[in-house]
Amino acid sequence: MPEGDTVWRTARRLDQALAGRQLTGCDLRIPRLATVDLAGRQVMDVTARGKHLLTRLEGGLTLHSHLRMDGAWHLYDPGERWRGGPLHQVRAILSTAERTAVGYRLPVLELLRTTDEDRAVGHLGPDLLGPDWDPHEALRRLLADPARPLGEALLDQRNLAGIGNVYKSELCFLVRVSPWLPVGQVPSPERLVALAKRLLEANKARPARITTAESRADRRLWVYGRAGKPCLRCGTPVRMEQGRADKERSTYWCPACQPGPTVTDPPTN
Q1: CA 196, CA 200: separation in Å to the nearest integer?
Q2: What family is reported (predicted)?
Q3: Does domain 135-253 have CATH number 1.20.272.10?
Q4: Which CATH fold would you assign to the domain 4-121?
């Protein structure tokens, strides 16, 4: 699932391409929106809220999308060949005179009144890359269930919005605690919250995510994606656990650098 920095970049690209321009074409390829035509409306802005995308349109409408695991928005010039996947995977087409935005494999696509956006995103905690970021509220929410495993609490978008499997694993490594340590036992949890904000801010405009100080492709991340490889800090083989209840949730950690409880089965959110 894309992390908050990826969704932020997607929103920025869509906003730069569409905002202030009138839609010349619209094709929403899901049954409940098949008869909707937004052509003629001006795009007001495209913004990210956690991992959600909100495309606001003239007339008080918002097209809400979520990428989940493999959804994507691509931008094309007039006449350019579409390369995001086969046509049967296209879920949304928004065209202006200059660019066409194509949404592929979007598992969430709905049209809301802009005044009703809270129906889609009101449950989210403070957005790490949003104007509503509040570290004190994020910390309060994170610690509300002190017995909850840290990795699970970080993934819960109701606590702080924008963290996925990559940042979950990297943050736990950087503060040197097990992802299964109860969040109430994390030393200086306010440091963890500040570090999450700093990492996403540092990476939001980068084409390649980096949490180490290195730009080499095989050394950009401390533990994520490095199962079986030596820890970049101590040389111990990095381990990976895939959630038994949710196969999409993988956790990477170094058992030497991150002492504490071992694997439990993180429930889905």
Answers
A1: 6
A2: Belongs to the FPG family.
A3: no
A4: N-terminal domain of MutM-like DNA repair proteins (3.20.190)
Catalytic status, residue 51: yes
User: Per the residue annotation, which of 2, 126, 189, 266 is the catalytic one?
Assistant: 2
Decide: 3 and 163 in contact? Cβ < 8 Å: yes
**Domain residue extents for the chain:** 4-121, 135-253
* Helix ranges (DSSP H) in the chain: 4-18, 118-121, 135-142, 150-155, 165-174, 189-203
Q: How far are the Cα atoms of 35, 166, 194, 195 from residue 199, in angstroms, in the given order? A: 42, 11, 9, 6
24-45 pLDDT, tens digit each: 999 999 999 999 999 999 999 9
**Chain centroid, CA 114 distance in Å:** 21
Contact 73, 102 (CB under 8 A): yes
Residue 2: active-site member:
yes
**3 annotated active-site:** yes
| Nearest CA-CA partner of 53 in 95, 106, 123, 98 | 106
The whole-angstrom distance between residue 177's C-alpha and the CA centroid of its chain comes to 23
Asked if residue 128 has pLDDT above 70, the reply is yes
* Residue with token string 């340590």: 181
Q: Is 182 helix (H, G, I), strand (E, B) or coil?
A: strand
State the pLDDT at residue 80: 97
pTM for this entry = 0.91
222 touches 170 (CB < 8 A): yes
